């Protein structure tokens, strides 16, 4: 590792996420050279690249997924935020789209956010937003709280809306998740009977994973993008869900 690469790595560790443009300015070399350096550092497992940015390894899961389709997820978050009024208490589950929603709400409105995501809680530490982080077993990879303690905490707090992420949906299965423990937390939220909103890009529709989220009747609406297949949209509506389509940015 040369001296410039050491500077790059230290900036990424200190700042958490640094753009190629900022790295080029800080080191006085071209963006092409920076990208070559990042390729070397990524191959050596010092950091990861994410769509024009470098991120440290320990932020790869949520942060990197947030940067994938960032413009689209930001549009989804803006629409979801418009459904929340000042003074509301809302539950926001784990995931990249939900993290953007939490940040958008914290910037725009006076709300209380209940979450099981330590990443979301950390993301809001400099905002005026009230944050309630529910306890439980810390699932390191997802930066989320899970387990029977988390389920108990969910039962003890109250919120008017819940924004949920999913991993898959098919007509035959309904909504599904890939992680048993996180799926159990979602199902605890669904048992509360509040307005539950699925916030996801359309790539999850058509996929299936092992753990059921549901029953379907406990979901209120879906917010997704205009790449959702028309037959999937029709089936969701036939099953009683309101489907809000957000135009993909071009």
From TrEMBL:
SMART domains: DeoRC, HTH_DEOR. InterPro entries: Carb_Metab_HTH_regulators (IPR050313), DeoR-like_C (IPR014036), DeoR_HTH (IPR001034), NagB/RpiA_transferase-like (IPR037171), Tscrpt_reg_HTH_DeoR_CS (IPR018356), WH-like_DNA-bd_sf (IPR036388), WH_DNA-bd_sf (IPR036390). One of its GO terms (molecular function) is DNA-binding transcription factor activity. Keywords: DNA-binding, Transcription, Transcription regulation. Residues 1-56 form the HTH deoR-type domain. It comes from the Bacteria. The keyword ATP-binding does not apply. Pfam families: DeoRC (PF00455), HTH_DeoR (PF08220). This is DNA-binding transcriptional regulator YciT. It comes from Pseudenterobacter timonensis.
């Amino acid at each position: 590792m040369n001296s410039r690469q050491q500077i790059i790595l230290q900036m990424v560790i200190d700042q958490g996420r640094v753009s190629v443009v900022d790295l080029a300015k800080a080191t006085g070399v071209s963006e092409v050279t920076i990208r070559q350096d990042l390729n070397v550092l990524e191959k050596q497992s010092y950091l990861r690249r994410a769509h024009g940015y470098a991120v440290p390894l320990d932020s790869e899961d949520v942060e990197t997924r947030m940067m994938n389709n960032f413009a689209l997820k930001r549009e989804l978050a803006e629409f979801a935020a418009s459904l929340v009024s000042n003074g509301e208490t809302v539950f926001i589950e784990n995931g990249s789209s939900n993290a953007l929603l939490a940040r958008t709400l914290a910037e725009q409105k006076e709300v209380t956010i209940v979450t099981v995501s330590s990443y979301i809680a950390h993301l809001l530490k400099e905002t005026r937003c009230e944050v309630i982080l529910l306890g439980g077993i810390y699932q390191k990879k997802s930066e989320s709280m899970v387990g029977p303690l988390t389920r108990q905490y969910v039962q003890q707090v109250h919120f008017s809306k819940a924004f949920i992420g999913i991993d898959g949906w098919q007509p035959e299965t309904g909504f599904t998740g890939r992680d048993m423990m996180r799926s159990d937390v979602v199902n605890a939220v669904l048992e509360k009977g509040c307005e539950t909103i699925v916030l996801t890009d359309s790539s999850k529709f058509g996929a299936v994973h092992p753990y059921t989220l549901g029953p379907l009747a406990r979901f209120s609406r879906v917010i997704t993008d205009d790449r959702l297949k028309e037959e999937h949209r029709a089936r969701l509506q036939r099953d009683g869900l309101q489907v809000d389509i957000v135009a993909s940015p071009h």
